[in-house]
Amino acid sequence: MPNKAIFLDRDDTLIADPGYISKPEQVKLLDGVSDALIELNGMGYKLVIVSNQSGIARGIVTEKVLGEIHNRLKQLLAKDGASVDAIYYCPYHVDGTIAKYSKKSDMRKPNPGMLLQAADEMDIDLSQSWAIGNNDSDIEAGSRANCKTILINHPSRYKQSESGSKPDFKAVNMKEAVNIIKQNNRSPEKNSDEQSDLPKKKMNNNPENDKTEELLTGILEQLRGSRRDNMFGEFSIMRLMAGVVQIVVLFCLLISVWFIMSPTKQTNSALISLGFAMVFQLMSLTFYMMQGRK
Ligand SMILES: [Mg+2]
């Protein structure tokens, strides 16, 4: 019986992406990735990383160092009891500076070459498989290989797709992606349109209405993304502190209103409270930003 697989993009899907990773020490797993891979493995999927590595063609990293980077990634996963079955990468790019690697390649995503090669070498049934990544090129490669696709699309980095490639599903992180795959395994005939309760586009000849509807759908989707981020995001002390300080801000604002409304109209006291409200608001924002960078 052929295998089913999850094709995983590497940067900003499994590990943090600081630009080009050129040293093993730069490898940092994203929150919840090890647990997600353990769950997917338990569901019987082969886990295959497929990664564009044009840094090799550009002379930023050698294949030897890339091997060390991937060993580091495997070590970090192993520490948590997780693993992947294979790592495929494409070193080629047309604008490369290293002659050997400066060429067009069917392996480079959005081409599906790496997925097709893995399917051939690992006996993978692509129609039972998924592709997960944070870029349009990951989605296009996945759908051209006949896989179902999930775009990891954090709401703070939300952008409308430019290439027109449409993922089957969107998730804020790997944790939500696993949830989507679980749900889809239970009801394989359901597709994303049936699952989504986003307003369906109606036939409409007025381009202004079309634009407004598109904008509203975008806003609605972004709000849902934030809500899902809260559901599937990790708990953090910084986030909790930001929430507590936010309540203090509200309290300061209420006090300043009370000073203004009081019969003696204590304007100075009201201004002091407003000042405190501003300081606490800044604190709250700082906590929120710090938790985003942890
Ligand atoms: Mg990526």
Element layout with pairings:
Blueprint: E1 4-8, H1 33-42, E2 45-52, H2 54-57, H3 63-79, E3 86-90, H4 113-122, E4 130-133, H5 136-144, E5 148-152, E6 169-171, H6 174-186, H7 192-195, H8 207-232, H9 237-261, H10 267-292
Parallel strand pairs: 1-2, 1-4, 2-3, 4-5, 5-6
The site of magnesium ion has 7 residues, from loops.
Describe the structure in your own words.
- This protein has helices spanning 33-42, 54-57, 63-79, 113-122, 136-144, 174-186, 192-195, 207-232, 237-261, 267-292; strands at residues 4-8, 45-52, 86-90, 130-133, 148-152, 169-171.
- The protein has 294 residues and is of the alpha/beta class.
- The protein folds into two domains: 4-195, HAD superfamily/HAD-like (Rossmann fold, 3-Layer(aba) Sandwich), CATH 3.40.50.1000; 237-292.
- The longest helix is centred in the last third of the chain and has 26 residues, at 207-232.
- The two termini are 43 Å apart.
- Residues 188-204 have low confidence and may be disordered.
- Bound molecules: magnesium ion.
- Magnesium ion binds next to loops.
- Magnesium ion (MG) binds at residues 9, 11-13, 133-135.
Molecular shape: elongated
Class based on secondary structure composition and strand pairing:
alpha/beta
Output the helix-strand order.
EHEHHEHEHEEHHHHH
Figure out the total of helices.
Answer: 10
Mean pLDDT: 85
CATH topology of the largest domain: Rossmann fold
What are the distinct ligands in this entry?
magnesium ion
Assess the beta-strand content as a share of residues.
Answer: 5-15%
E-strand count: 6
Number of domains: 2
CATH architecture level-2 label of the largest domain: 3-Layer(aba) Sandwich
